[in-house]
Fold:
Amino acid sequence: MNALMNTRMDSKYLDKMTACHDCDLLVERIPLDVDQQAHCPRCNNLMYQERRDTNNKTLIASFSGLLMVMPAYFTPMMNMEALGIGNSASVIQSIPPMLNSSYWIAGLGLMLFAVLVPILILLISFWISLHLRFELYPKYLVTLQKSYQRLISWGMSEVYILGLIVAFVKLLDDFTVTIGAGLICFILLMFCSLLVTTTSSRHHFWETLNANS
Ligand SMILES: [Zn+2]
Structure:
C-alpha cells in the first residue's frame, strides 16, 4: 500500500519536472505566460516555451500539407529538355526506375523519407490536433502520439529541399529546365511537414490528455 502511494507521489512529482536537452539538468516545470520562454539555469539552453494557439496552428499546417499530397507526388516536378528532346516525371513515377537500377538505395530513401514519413507526419498530426480541437480523447490517441514522436525524428524535409536546390542548379548546366507545379507543391508539402514539427507541442498534448482523463 505504502509502495503504491509512494509510486503515485513520485509520478506526480516527476510530472512537474523536465530535463534540459543539452546538459540533462532536472528542473521543476513552472507555468509560463504566452510567448514566454524558460531557459536552463546551468547552460542557458531553451528548455520549453508557451506558444499561442499551438493546436490550431498544427491543425492548419497539417491540413494545408495534406492538400498538397496529390499534386506534389503525382504531377511532374520539372521538365528537362536537351537537343529538342524533353522529359518530365513526378516523384511517384521516378521511384520504380530508381528501385530497379543500381541507385535502389536512393530510391528506397526517396520512397521512405520524401513520401511515406512526411505523409504519416501530416496525417497523424492532423488527426491528433483535430481530436484535441473538438475535445475528443479516445484511448488510441496515446499510441498515435507516441508513434508521431518517433516519426518526427525521421523527418528530413530540410535535407530534401536542399538536395532539390543542388540538383536543380546542377541540371541547369546540361539541360533547359522548366519548373513544374509538382516541384512547387512538393516544397510546400515539405515546408508544412517541417512547420507541423515546430508548432506541435508534446507537452501540450500530454497535459491536455492528463486534464481530461
Ligand atoms: Zn542545460
